[in-house]
Design goal:
This protein is of the alpha+beta class. The protein has three helices and seven strands; from the N terminus they run H-E-E-E-H-H-E-E-E-E. Strands 1-2-3-4-5-6-7 form a seven-stranded mixed beta sheet. A hairpin with a 2-residue loop joins strand 1 and strand 2. The chain is globular, with a radius of gyration of 15 Å. About 25% of the residues are buried.
Length: about 140
């Protein structure tokens, strides 16, 4: 299954811009349903992103509302006393180490003394969400 995509095509379907590629860190800004979202790829070559991940990115865009709602439900379940509606989906992460399984949806939760807090919900290749949230501070 080689559905190699051109970079221009990938950027087109994501309404993407500002492609950055340096030493297996690839990043670009996209726009899904009117929301600006960063696409982050760690450990992948440009060729791997274009040949192997295009399918997942297309499905994320197609199923965006459902995936976003699912991730927010998981966060709400774990943080019942907090207003989770204020969370902003900021990043979609692909990491070759699979620390986010197939991909992660990262929600910006605010600025703290230690840095910016992100709540990341992991999804597998079947687009099923993991109920354990990853907490990252940058």
């Amino acid at each position: 299954m080689n559905n190699h995509m051109k970079k221009e095509d990938l950027l087109y379907i994501c309404k993407g811009r500002d492609w950055y590629n340096n030493d297996n860190v690839i990043y670009f800004k996209g726009n899904i349903s009117g929301k600006e979202i960063n696409f982050d790829f760690c450990g992948y070559s440009e060729d791997e992103v274009l040949s192997g991940l295009g399918y997942f990115i297309e499905r994320i865009i197609r199923d965006f509302e459902r995936l976003d709602n699912k991730a927010r439900d998981i966060i709400k379940e774990k943080h019942k006393d907090e207003d989770t509606n204020i969370l902003k989906l900021s990043d979609i992460y692909f990491d070759k180490s699979e620390c986010y399984d197939c991909f992660g949806m990262g929600y910006y939760a605010g600025e703290y003394k230690t840095g910016k807090l992100y709540l990341i919900v992991k999804f597998d290749e079947e687009f099923q969400a993991d109920k354990d949230i990853v907490y990252e501070v940058y």
